[in-house]
Amino acid sequence: MAGSKFAYVKKFELPDALLPNMFMVFRLDGHSFHRFSDQHGFTKPNDLRALQLMDHAAKSVMEEYKDISLAFGESDEYSFLLRKSTALYNRRQAKIVSTLTSLFTSCYVFHWPKYFPDLPLQYPPSFDGRIVLYPSQQEVRDYFAWRQADTHINNLYNTVFWALVQQGGQTTTEAHATLRGTISKDKHEILFSRFEINYDKIDPRYRKGSVLVRVETPEAPALDSSAQVDVLSTIPDDSSKRKKARAVRTHLELLHCDLIRDEFWDKYAHLLEQHIVI
Amino acid sequence: MAGSKFAYVKKFELPDALLPNMFMVFRLDGHSFHRFSDQHGFTKPNDLRALQLMDHAAKSVMEEYKDISLAFGESDEYSFLLRKSTALYNRRQAKIVSTLTSLFTSCYVFHWPKYFPDLPLQYPPSFDGRIVLYPSQQEVRDYFAWRQADTHINNLYNTVFWALVQQGGQTTTEAHATLRGTISKDKHEILFSRFEINYDKIDPRYRKGSVLVRVETPEAPALDSSAQVDVLSTIPDDSSKRKKARAVRTHLELLHCDLIRDEFWDKYAHLLEQHIVI
Amino acid sequence: MAGSKFAYVKKFELPDALLPNMFMVFRLDGHSFHRFSDQHGFTKPNDLRALQLMDHAAKSVMEEYKDISLAFGESDEYSFLLRKSTALYNRRQAKIVSTLTSLFTSCYVFHWPKYFPDLPLQYPPSFDGRIVLYPSQQEVRDYFAWRQADTHINNLYNTVFWALVQQGGQTTTEAHATLRGTISKDKHEILFSRFEINYDKIDPRYRKGSVLVRVETPEAPALDSSAQVDVLSTIPDDSSKRKKARAVRTHLELLHCDLIRDEFWDKYAHLLEQHIVI
Amino acid sequence: MAGSKFAYVKKFELPDALLPNMFMVFRLDGHSFHRFSDQHGFTKPNDLRALQLMDHAAKSVMEEYKDISLAFGESDEYSFLLRKSTALYNRRQAKIVSTLTSLFTSCYVFHWPKYFPDLPLQYPPSFDGRIVLYPSQQEVRDYFAWRQADTHINNLYNTVFWALVQQGGQTTTEAHATLRGTISKDKHEILFSRFEINYDKIDPRYRKGSVLVRVETPEAPALDSSAQVDVLSTIPDDSSKRKKARAVRTHLELLHCDLIRDEFWDKYAHLLEQHIVI
């Protein structure tokens, strides 16, 4: 074969499978979205259209990859939880990272006109992605709590900041100075006393971010995709107590709820379970 | 800080810097492009518009990332060579793989209407990417030779196959059967004797693939981007003989030429050099 | 400094820290111990002195490295369990693997004369080591069960094999032939009917291997080493519920007991716990 | 099989092959050798017996592993260069690191009595090891230059320091104070003017460290080990210009020479070549 004497270069592609039975969190972030949001005139502190587009892209990714059970988005970032036992692309790291980042990006550009009908995309945006492995449910819960706590901190700051600028007439430099050294309580107070804004009444989408959960569709009449069955048969989760895989029909729900307290995790306990296919 | 008790989850993000002073080849491939090309009615054996769109996306990536000196594309894949001494994203693997894949994808979707003005994109396409490290110039040359030899083999097969089907009236099953066991010479012969096609006269774009080279623009009047200067100052290439970095203006040329023989590498020797900023 | 122009070569030492909060199992195996045991005339099927020397070396390693809570040995291999939260050498893989293998080897050679007083070591033996990460207690239990099941299978085979050779007068080729296709029950039967050996009465050291457990010494009067306290303060195990580290005095017990059933793990539950320093 | 339900734990052993065609440097260091040298009363600034024992252990390792072409030792550390094309243990990192560290350690303990006939080893010493990959000859040369420059700096300091203490009657604190801020020239001057020691006349073993080179034995009458032939046939070094492997007889030479200037590398150019089996 013509190419055979060059084929040795394939030997430099080393395997990069991720450890089995670990939760995978895939997180992506917008690349230079400060500039991107400026160029497209995103509303401050939050642009509803841009957030809805992020949610749409995330939903599309979850519809394509059934092993993602949960996702959380805020601003220009989104985190996805893959089931502990996923055999997606044989758990090859570069393949998973690049494919998921690519599909999200593609959906973002593809669906842009739906959310910005009068504003053409000025240039192609990009995202970067990474995978982090977690051994147990506790760490996964704490990961999502960490992101939501971050959402809270950023959104509270931005809400007051832009109120000072847009309604209070401060320059951005003045607004930063006003906020320097303030704690959460101070910021609530500024919002309420100066702008009559009760932060806790602000749309939970902005305060809590977006939560996409995969839930079982009742009365599932037929078998779901073969992909899920494959997954289960590839990597045994433990020695013996393997439940029979059930292939069920699922759908996605978009929530803007608390991820830190137990309530969510109690209600959606199946999201962290490894055996149940949902 | 509200999130501080959860911040320990960041400790699970392990460093993934790639070894210094190694050539990096970043290759991406279309995900399920067999289906994608069917759905969009790509011309067989080659769709000029689709190939030009790939080239456009690759060019955009190279315009953004100056440390890419060379790229080669065929069909739905593209390979990019990063300079040995690149400090792009501190050589973090997931960051580079995901960002480059993302930008390419974004450009592909963004520029689609230019190449398919009458055919709206049916659904968002995606790509997967990987990075392979090579220690020396010889392996890099052999890598690109490997891809171009692959282009030749595939294109020759596809050209005969679709001639048999489109002009010869064979079914695809019959065409595969006709080609079974044939060697290169036989395929040339079939093309010529049955269809009066001289394979060597076919557009070199299809026979050789697309080569994007970065070349220095003569009379560069001013300094180029600061990014290139940064790169050079971060990772010393050897102990002492460091040449003074020259920040020069460059542009990209699209070629459809041979990458296997010495001629190309002699002419564009700077592409494999580590010290010269181009 | 004289060496400074060469110091860039240090940049090629990439970080290799292992993921936090994972159980580490370190296993080592004798290198070419078939030859080694022949050269030193080890008794077949088991050489008590050689096994005791392995146990001694393993015990010395555990005395030096308090983060090892459990070890299991059979034949020329030994497995060590490091606590999930260990910060030993900042969890650097090569450092841990090489140091533990080195110390075990050193102890083996150093203590050889105690167990083979009349037989000088003929040449320096060596071992190879590796680390495997496990996310949960279940996998750690199954790992040790796997090794002990292996011990059982090998020892039963070897016991019958050497009985056939040593007492039954078979050649080794004949003995292998006799055992071909036999299942466990058959081997018990051969032992009992031909050699009046009740396998279940054989020294549990041979049937079960060696188990080294770290247990708390009652009435510990004083603080133990600072190393353990360091460990706990370095890598937080979870977000908030951190127990106060107790530095306690521990000692090692050598057992030859079942590791597969629950009894052992119920009794020594602390071995898999991450918070308790023992 | 009894163990089969536990065998899934093997899936957690991920591959760890090192990149092909890269030079491997394996370096090991004594673990807590400050304490070790104190306990065994090593002569200061250099203990000839201890250094000879290190050399002996290093030589044994090179006799066992023919793919090591060069080694350099100083104090309680030793670096080994493996041929670029070595297929040793399929280039598995943990296997190579642990085995080489283990064998060196074993030889050190085993041969101790030859060098310290009247001083029994007080406790088992240990070493840690690591592997660093280098893409080109230049970096390998610079690596060894870096280690020898380090040897020079340390030995010059120690020589003056111990002269001040042993002959000059200073306390160690005073000696450190005397040397604070001095440059190389000052140290030479102190040695010469106060103690009539011409540093350049000191045994090159102490000034230059130990260099072990593998050289071809003239008139080699027969084939060497099969291992070397295996190596060459496993990993092709380049596309086409592969020289025929010659299996030749080699031996080791111990030198105490300069590794920084070209002379050494010109004379022993074969040490860095990948094709020649020596």
UniProtKB/TrEMBL annotation, chains A, B, C, D:
- Job of this protein: Adds a GMP to the 5'-end of tRNA(His) after transcription and RNase P cleavage.
- Listed binding positions for Mg(2+) 1 are 29-30, 76
Positions annotated to bind Mg(2+) 2: 29, 76
According to its UniProt record, the EC number is 2.7.7.79
Share an example GO biological-process annotation for this protein: tRNA modification
Q: Is this entry keyworded Lipid biosynthesis?
A: no
Report the source organism: Lentinula raphanica
Q: How is the cofactor bound?
A: Binds 2 magnesium ions per subunit.
Q: Where does GTP bind?
A: 29-34, 75-76
For this UniProt record, the keywords arranged alphabetically read as follows: GTP-binding, Magnesium, Metal-binding, Nucleotide-binding, Nucleotidyltransferase, Transferase, tRNA processing
Q: Kindly report, in one word, the top-level EC class recorded for this enzyme.
A: transferase
Q: Which reaction does it catalyse?
A: a 5'-end ribonucleotide-tRNA(His) + GTP + ATP + H2O = a 5'-end phospho-guanosine-ribonucleotide-tRNA(His) + AMP + 2 diphosphate + H(+)
Known cofactor(s): Mg(2+)
Name any one GO molecular function: GTP binding
Record's Gene3D superfamilies? 3.30.70.3000
Which InterPro entries does this entry report, sorted A to Z?
Answer: Thg1_C_dom, tRNAHis_GuaTrfase_cat, tRNAHis_GuaTrfase_Thg1, tRNAHis_GuaTrfase_Thg1_sf
Quote the protein name from its UniProt record.
tRNA(His) guanylyltransferase
| Domain Thg1 C-terminal per the UniProt entry, residue ranges | 138-260
Q: Which family does it belong to?
A: Belongs to the tRNA(His) guanylyltransferase family.
